[in-house]
Structure to design on (252 residues):
């Protein structure tokens, strides 16, 4: 497709222009909100945060099934009680080995997932059990939804049903569901998980008003990601993604 003919601004790239005002002054995002209230530097920085999916090179706004599955895979990895660094390295290992679809993962099989994929990512403590869970999730996704996450969304009656369908996947709990759905809020009509209590607690601590942006907006997703990162920085632990289950730094 000739990108020069596409005059519609890319929803994820507008952040670069919008957030320049966050340095040394109030964020334009907050200035243009319905509340029209100034924001603190902490809030301004959070509002301009990079999404976790963006860090992994995943464009959820595309709606492409390949991007949706990669984010689902990343959510499965990040949902475990393990550091973000290891989860990110393991995700990169899956991509490096070409395991970017449920079909390819099932063909690779359990032995290959454990070693070399998980081992190369440093996902050693849970490598065997997590490999089984990922294989089970891929099998169920193919069996029940033809390998299509958009179909899963469309078949759900509402937001609650969407979350319940995801919870039926083996090894998927509320944290993983929250990780997967929260950055999809702006793009999936039925994706609207409540913010985690730790996000709300961090917002209160930093005096950030979560009501400034609609919960289904991209601005809210960035704010949420920024609050999670700031929480881990203040706690002095490895930055956890999504689920924010803390893994303390081990001393040598």
């Amino acid at each position: 497709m000739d990108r020069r003919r596409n005059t519609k601004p890319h929803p994820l790239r507008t952040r670069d222009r919008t957030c320049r005002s966050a340095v040394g002054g109030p964020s334009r995002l907050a200035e243009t909100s319905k509340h029209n209230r100034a924001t603190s530097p902490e809030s301004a920085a959070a509002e301009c945060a990079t999404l976790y999916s963006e860090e992994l090179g995943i464009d959820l706004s595309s709606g492409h099934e390949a991007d949706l599955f990669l984010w689902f895979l990343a959510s499965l990895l990040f949902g475990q009680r393990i550091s973000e660094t290891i989860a990110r390295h393991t995700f990169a290992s899956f991509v490096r080995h070409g395991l970017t679809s449920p079909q390819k993962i099932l063909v690779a099989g359990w032995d290959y997932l454990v070693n070399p994929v998980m081992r190369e990512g440093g996902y050693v403590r849970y490598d065997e059990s997590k490999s089984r869970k990922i294989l089970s999730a891929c099998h169920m996704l193919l069996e029940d939804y033809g390998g299509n996450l958009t179909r899963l969304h469309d078949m759900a009656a509402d937001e609650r049903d969407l979350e319940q369908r995801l919870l039926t996947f083996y090894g998927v709990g509320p944290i993983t569901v929250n990780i997967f759905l929260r950055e999809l809020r702006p793009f999936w009509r039925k994706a609207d998980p409540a913010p985690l209590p730790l996000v709300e607690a961090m917002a209160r601590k930093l005096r950030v008003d979560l009501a400034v942006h609609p919960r289904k907006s991209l601005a809210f997703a960035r704010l949420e990601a920024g609050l999670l990162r700031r929480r881990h920085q203040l706690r002095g632990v490895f930055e956890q993604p999504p689920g924010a289950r803390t893994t303390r730094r081990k001393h040598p």
Remarks:
- The CA atoms of residues 204 and 210 lie 9 Å apart.
- Confidence is low (pLDDT under 50) at residues 1-14, 20-38, 237-241, 244-252.
